[in-house]
Amino acid sequence: DSGVTQTPKHLITATGQRVTLRCSPRSGDLSVYWYQQSLDQGLQFLIQYYNGEERAKGNILERFSAQQFPDLHSELNLSSLELGDSALYFCASSERLAGVGTDTQYFGPGTRLTVL
Amino acid sequence: AQSVTQPDIHITVSEGASLELRCNYSYGATPYLFWYVQSPGQGLQLLLKYFSGDTLVQGIKGFEAEFKRSQSSFNLRKPSVHWSDAAEYFCAVGVYSGGGADGLTFGKGTHLIIQP
Predict the structure, then answer these.
(1) Which of A14, A108, B40, B87 lies deepest, with the highest CB count within 10 Å?
(2) Under the phi-then-psi rule, with left for phi > 0, alpha for psi from -120 to 50, and beta for the rest, what region is A104?
């Protein structure tokens, strides 16, 4: 158990809909990362937040957005869903200690999204 | 931009035999390297990491990896595999800026099959 929690575990929805995935980081971790794992694209970094602020963007679609709240939990919002958005979505967290290059990311169990 | 190549999509090894999973990276500076394992239906578990120092790093479950700068490689090894090692293995490279980690870049993964 990494200490990172994600809800829900599974989500089934229809095309055109909007969903929200939730992540709670490990206690004390300030940084949250979102990743998408699909059969054709593999594991891809989407976006990172640090202490409530967006820190870095990867291959995130404009239909997707995220935020990190004052209690440090994060939500990933996926809208206008398409069949191709079906994937496993992982959240990871790290301490992100300034000046220390030993920042390890710990992954949650993931949310499996199925778009029908 | 950084990239990671795992040349072997599938590897089959007999139980008790030794294992080596290959990983090559491309990055302009000193990379931060990781190996993660994903069991079916599970999240990603960190096996080991390399940040600096000794190029041979030890991880959990009896795994080790060696960083070879001249070959841009970070191969994962285990002297004797167990049936429970059957899983998907991912090599990843991390980039650090502003004192902390940005999103990881993952390889496509190597699927390890253990023969009895």
Answers:
(1) A108
(2) beta
